[in-house]
């Protein structure tokens, strides 16, 4: 779903290609979770298909931000 707030956040984050954050929640069984973006404090969705490394709650990670079908998603997610 597209909205102006997501557009502004995406535009801001895209300027800084790789982002850093902390895994707030990740469910291995369901294959998804959320990362808190260090620079903004916003949460972003992450799917298991976009992981480079296995992640767990409270892991520090780096990632790229992309626009998905339902909003912003974290891709190329790596543990730091």
From TrEMBL:
Compartments it resides in: Cytoplasm
A GO CC annotation recorded here is: cytosol
Q: Which PROSITE patterns match?
A: CSD_1, CSD_2
Q: Which keywords does this chain's UniProt record carry?
A: Cytoplasm
SUPFAM superfamilies from the entry?
Nucleic acid-binding proteins
Which Gene3D superfamilies is this protein grouped with?
A: Nucleic acid-binding proteins
Q: Which residues form the CSD domain?
A: 18-79
* GO MF assignments: nucleic acid binding
Q: Which PANTHER family match?
A: COLD SHOCK DOMAIN CONTAINING PROTEINS
Name by which UniProt lists this protein = Cold-shock protein
In its UniProt entry, the species of origin is given as: Empedobacter brevis NBRC 14943 = ATCC 43319
């Amino acid at each position: 779903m597209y909205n102006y707030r997501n557009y502004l956040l995406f535009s801001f984050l895209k300027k800084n290609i790789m982002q850093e954050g902390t895994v707030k929640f990740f469910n291995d069984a369901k294959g998804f979770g959320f990362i808190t973006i260090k620079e903004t404090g916003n949460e972003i969705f992450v799917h298991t298909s976009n992981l480079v490394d296995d992640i767990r709650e409270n892991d520090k990670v780096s990632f790229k931000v992309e626009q998905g079908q339902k909003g912003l998603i974290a891709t190329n997610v790596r543990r730091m």
